[in-house]
From TrEMBL:
InterPro entries: Peptidase_S78_dom, Prohead_protease. It comes from the Bacteria. NCBIfam families: proheadase_HK97. Keywords: Hydrolase, Protease, Viral release from host cell. This is HK97 family phage prohead protease. One of its GO terms (biological process) is proteolysis. Transmembrane segments: none annotated. Residues 20-163 form the Prohead serine protease domain. GO terms for molecular function: peptidase activity.
Length: 182
């Protein structure tokens, strides 16, 4: 077991994101899904990896593509809410009426978002050859990603209350394809 603090890192994954009015919700990270990190190693996130950060009550940001100039929400103001559950790091954020917020909502409603990402510093990890398990991280930010994710173990979908049915069918088909590919 290795318990060493590493430099700040970012991970991107395709996840479920739902648009509900002026809110986005979904998962910024999921547990036990493998991701190939640049051909260097395969990484998973252990359940509980975000617990210390969430208990610390620090100010965690929600950004667009890790860009500090495009803040969507933050925990300090209460516009970003984060929680760990059995699946992963769940988020719920109030989207601002800014150009970045309107763009993200429009892309979410169309199903065009690439996924979610998170910026972190690992303080507890386990390495075994080319495998790395994140067991404890200091979470700095989560980001809505407009392009491609690093983690492809989950599905992204966007849905508003009026248009939930077509996206639900898309998500069900994508999950079925994912299961068949395993």
């Amino acid at each position: 077991m290795s318990t060493a603090r590493t430099s700040s890192e970012r991970r991107t994954l395709a996840v479920e994101i739902r648009a509900r009015g002026r809110r986005l919700e979904g998962y910024a990270a999921t547990f036990n899904n493998q991701a190939d990190i640049g051909g260097r190693f395969v990484e998973t996130i252990a359940p509980g990896a975000f617990a210390a950060s969430l208990r610390a009550k620090g100010d965690i940001l929600a950004l667009v593509d890790h860009d500090l100039g495009r803040v969507l929400a933050r925990t300090r103001s209460g516009t970003l809410r984060l929680a760990e559950d059995a699946r992963g790091l769940a988020f719920d954020l109030d989207v601002p009426d800014t150009s970045a917020g309107r763009d993200v909502l429009a892309l979410a409603e169309r199903g065009d978002l690439g996924g979610m990402s998170f910026g972190f510093t690992a303080f507890d990890e386990h390495r075994d050859g080319d495998r790395r398990e994140l067991r404890g991280v200091e979470l700095h930010e989560i980001s809505v990603v407009l392009a491609w994710p690093a983690y492809d173990g989950t599905v992204i979908q966007a849905r508003s209350l009026e248009t939930a049915a077509p996206f639900r069918r898309y998500a069900e088909r994508a999950l079925k394809l994912l299961e068949l590919s395993r």
